[in-house]
Design brief:
Layout lengths: L1 E5 L5 H12 L7 E6 L2 E3 L2 E3 L4 H14 L4 E6 L1 H6 L29 E5 L3 E3 L4 H4 L8 E5 L3 H4 L10 E9 H7 L1 H11 L5 H9 L3 E3 L16 E3 L3 E3 L5 E3 L6 H6 L7 H20 L1
Parallel strand pairs: 1-2, 1-6, 2-5, 8-10
Antiparallel strand pairs: 3-4, 6-9, 7-11, 8-9, 12-13
Length: 280
């Protein structure tokens, strides 16, 4: 199974947790591709994920399946050439837009499942991964809020959340989707820029069940839980943003204890890496 994650060094905690959760739910060999970026401008800094960290994770993956592997690709050069100028000052970091450069990495396979680093797997996702991609650029789940707020059609919802996307890179290259998205991020300021660009410009999106990207409340059939920002109305209107590595908030705010054993393993994996790093 081919997986892709994107971002700077700040995705490290989520990357560990997400990969450990996937390994608990499939015995298949995993081919993981991580796109990273090094960038600095006007006080906004993206420090890249290091080869040392990826090498360590490669060992973790191979303990699960000897045929698994993880590779790092630095897309900084392409990123600088295609700066999302109009969106560099938004609250979304440049790293959020790195996924739009996947078509420029020739080593990536045609079929690849992109996951945000705050995605936790809790079930078999082969139904999603192996679905027919003929004529489809990408497959995803409706955005919980955006599907209502950013409707392009009066009687239907078509706005995808970009946290879980099954990509057909061959079709994306043919249609030039990501190239068009990069140009739009360069020229037009948007709310949630990369996600908005994908939704605006994709001509062959396909929608799957919410269980493959649950953005609101954990359900019995949830396969991927996405710890995205949500909103609460009681006792007052406020936003809630809890990530899976925020264990205290996970318990006290979301009342989720299901991942406790996973988080114990995560802390062990992280501690071992930090110990090795300190010795180096």
């Amino acid at each position: 199974m081919n997986l892709m994650y994107c971002g700077d060094k700040n995705i490290a905690d989520g990357l560990i947790i997400s990969l450990l959760s996937i390994m608990k739910n499939t015995s298949a060999p995993l081919k993981v591709y991580v796109l990273t970026v090094s960038y600095e401008r006007d006080g906004k800094v993206c420090e890249p994920i290091t080869e040392e960290f990826i090498s360590y994770l490669d060992g973790v993956l191979k303990e699960h399946n000897k045929d698994s592997a993880i590779k790092l690709f630095d897309v900084s050069e392409d990123f600088v050439k295609n700066l999302p100028e109009k969106n560099l000052e938004t609250r979304f970091t440049p790293g959020c837009m790195v996924r739009l450069f996947a078509d420029l990495v020739p080593e990536l396979p045609d079929r690849i499942l992109y996951l945000d680093n705050d995605i936790v797997c809790r079930g078999d996702f082969s139904e999603l991964y192996y679905m027919d991609l003929d004529g489809k650029e990408l497959v995803g789940v409706l955005d919980y809020y955006g599907a209502w707020l950013f409707k392009r059609k009066l009687l239907s919802r078509d706005y995808l959340n970009s946290g879980v996307l099954l990509l057909n890179l061959k079709e994306i290259k043919r249609t030039g989707l990501f190239q068009k998205c990069r140009e739009r991020c360069r020229d037009k300021k948007m709310f949630m820029p990369d996600q908005s660009a994908i939704n605006k410009l994709s001509q062959s999106k396909h929608y799957v069940s919410r269980k493959f990207n649950e953005q609101r409340k954990l359900k019995d059939d949830t396969v991927f839980q996405h710890f995205t920002t949500s909103f609460r109305f009681f006792p007052y209107f406020h936003s809630v943003s809890v990530k899976p590595w925020n264990v205290t908030q996970l318990h006290n705010t979301l009342n989720i204890y299901e991942y406790d054993s996973l988080l114990v393993e995560y802390r062990k994996v992280k501690a071992k890496y930090l110990a090795q790093e300190n010795k180096a």
